[in-house]
Amino acid sequence: MSSEDSDRVAAVVFLKTRSGKSIRDFRDGALPKVLEPYRAPDGVMEFVHHAFERLGFDVRLDLTGLMLFLNGSSLLFSDCFGSVITKPNVELAPPEELKEFIEAIVVMRSPKYI
Fold first, then answer.
1. What are 33-88's pLDDT values in tens digits?
2. Is residue 114 in some structural domain?
3. Which long-range contacts (CB under 8 A, 24 or more apart) does 72-76 make?
4. What is the residue range of 28's domain?
């Protein structure tokens, strides 16, 4: 693994839903058959996606369309979230302008690049 790869951090962004239900309730089991109550209000996913891209993150939508994945350098994460990321499963405070849309941002294990 190169030093550039070890400098990478990844996180998952859980958006607030229109129903108030949380997809995080299913972190240890199968997803519900009906995903609609777990979707963000119209336009929120795109707004948050573009906001994080403008901040410099590589942003991806998960396959269910319920969460976003952030990837960036440890310096970018530190600049954006105000703390040095040293381990997974740490929750990060969303940027002020996105707080009303985000339920949680959780650091994931660092991606491994081949």
1. 888 888 999 999 999 999 999 999 999 998 888 999 999 999 999 999 988 777 88
2. no
3. 72/8, 72/9, 73/7, 73/8, 73/9, 74/7, 74/8, 74/9, 75/7, 76/9
4. 3-108
Token pair of 96 as six digits? 């002020």
Whether 113 is in a domain gets the answer: no
Provide the 8-state DSSP code for 96: G
Q: What is the 8-class DSSP label of residue 40?
A: P
Kindly report the average pLDDT of the chain as a whole number. Answer: 86
Pick from 16, 113, 18, 21: nearest CA to 68: 16
Element (H, E) at 108: strand 102-108
